[in-house]
Design brief:
With about 475 residues, the chain is α+β, with helices and mostly antiparallel strands. It is built from 11 helices and 26 strands.
């Protein structure tokens, strides 16, 4: 009888919440649009606007919206703001969202970046998915619980940051003044629940050598744009090398690596451009690394012996083409919770006097300074490189069997009819440094909402479903 009563109560609660959110569909869309019309890219600091006037205005607008719905709000010097359901109750749940956006960029076709538009069930515009749409969905979840009169014994707080895209100094400032709630989720990823985020080692290494003018020689090498991007192009200049020999070796390397090599002769000099496939460094297997491809060609060439060429061979030994798991570096590892380590050689500069390189590594939960950083330092020293890092970003893990995570998954299953499960990711989210924080929503697993790209969009029905899920979570965790 008791179980039957619980099921009936759950169905009634779901119907209540769903009916409320559906009835406020147009109002919710307009509130999202109010925020998305504001360009909240980070700009120069001004008095009262640590991340620029746009971010400050967007935060002010969001807090005005929340205040208008009866929530107590607070502005933390325009770094972040919050809206409380009932600040007199013990704090139990934080929902952490952000209002800043990446630069608008080019290539928009459906609408202008800051002119949100509804089309074919989608809301287009910068920030609609990342993260203004989910932030408003969370606010409407709180509004539903409040206006439906669902009784709470503990408080829920919506925290709105303004610097997530550029380092999260906003949240550092906020948590310098406030304690984290016992539980936190951020609707800044996708469903079901991201409870594991790999650690990171952004390796930076150097080598110095005595210049050699002997021919043939490598004049320079330049590759990479950002440490978290597998480079799709790498360029080198060589001097005193026969073009026919260079062309022959390029064909051999191309067959082995799949990298295309473009050669351009200018007198005694020849520029060599390696063309591969770019990818995010968290998934280096999706790309074809132009740096390691170019190195595999260069070490085949009969350069005059010198320290520079020896260091080049050392780089190939540590980062052979196709090794995306750090096997040669001695750090290959894997665990059931977070998967296998990834390593992407992403930046490199070489001239006659030295070499400066960077690599991106996403480290599973089993990784630490002893079995990753110390091992990599020793291996690189053996090849003549100094790895400059003394620390690494630790992994983040919230147990899948915790009451918090199970509650999130149950709400997801109740409102979607899909299986709820935990996910691991290589990147770091807003909650990476919060002991009991996970990423939860707001996009369905199959939705590619072009986050950070042109024509970013949110599926409106997914935002409505998220608001319903979040309301159920609030009721379950704070009721």
């Amino acid at each position: 009888m008791g179980n039957e009563g619980n099921r009936t109560g759950t169905i009634e609660r779901k119907q209540q919440i769903s009916a409320y959110i559906d009835s406020h569909r147009e109002e919710m869309i307009e509130d999202i649009c109010r925020l998305c019309r504001i360009n909240s890219e980070r700009t120069d600091r001004k008095e009262g606007a640590p991340f620029g006037e746009g971010a400050a205005r967007c935060l002010e607008t969001a807090l005005d919206i929340a205040k208008g719905y009866g929530f107590a709000v607070k502005n933390y010097d325009y770094y972040a703001g919050c809206a409380d359901m009932d600040g007199s109750l013990p704090q139990n749940l934080d929902i952490l969202a952000h209002l800043d956006v990446v630069p608008a960029g080019e290539g928009w076709k459906v609408t202008e970046p800051f002119a949100p538009r509804v089309k074919d069930g989608r809301l287009y515009g910068r920030g609609t998915a990342d993260d203004k749409g989910p932030a408003i969905a969370a606010l409407y979840a709180m509004r539903a619980v409040k206006e439906l009169g669902i009784p709470l014994q503990k408080n829920v707080r919506l925290i709105l940051g303004t610097d997530e895209e550029c380092g999260s100094s906003d949240i550092d400032y906020y948590y310098g003044k406030e304690q984290p709630a016992p539980m936190t989720f951020s609707p800044d990823a996708s469903y079901p629940v991201v409870n594991v985020e790999k650690g990171g080692l952004n390796g930076h290494f150097t080598a110095e050598f005595i210049p050699s003018g002997k021919l043939p020689r490598l004049v320079s090498l330049q590759a990479g744009t950002k440490i978290n991007v597998v480079p799709g192009k790498a360029e080198a200049v060589v001097e005193g090398m026969e073009q026919s020999l260079l062309g022959q070796k390029a064909k051999e390397a191309e067959q082995e690596t799949g990298i295309r090599f473009l050669l351009e002769q200018k007198g005694e000099f020849c520029s060599v451009t390696a063309v591969g496939t770019s990818a995010h460094a968290s998934k280096p297997e999706d790309g074809n690394n132009a740096i390691t491809g170019l190195l595999s060609l260069l070490v085949r060439l009969p350069f005059a012996p010198c320290e520079q060429i020896e260091r080049l061979k050392g780089a190939v030994a540590l980062f052979p083409h196709g090794d995306v798991n750090g096997t040669a570096l001695g750090v290959d590892m894997e665990d059931e919770v977070s998967g296998r380590i990834t390593v992407a050689f992403s930046m490199l500069k070489v001239d006659e006097r030295g070499m400066d390189g960077q690599f991106d590594s996403r480290v599973p939960v089993c990784g630490n300074k002893d079995n990753v950083l110390a091992v990599a330092k020793e291996k690189m020293a053996g090849c003549g490189f100094a790895l400059l890092n003394d620390s690494m970003r630790p992994p983040h893990h919230v147990p899948a069997d915790s009451d918090f995570v199970r509650t999130l998954l149950k709400a997801y299953e109740t409102y979607t009819g899909r299986e709820g499960k935990c996910l691991s990711m290589g990147g770091a989210t807003y909650v990476h440094n919060l002991e009991n924080g996970v990423a939860f929503g707001a996009a369905m697993p199959e939705t590619d909402n072009k986050m950070h790209g042109a024509d970013e969009f949110a599926v409106i029905d997914e935002l409505l479903t998220s608001a319903k899920i979040f309301a159920q979570v609030i009721a379950d965790l704070c009721g």
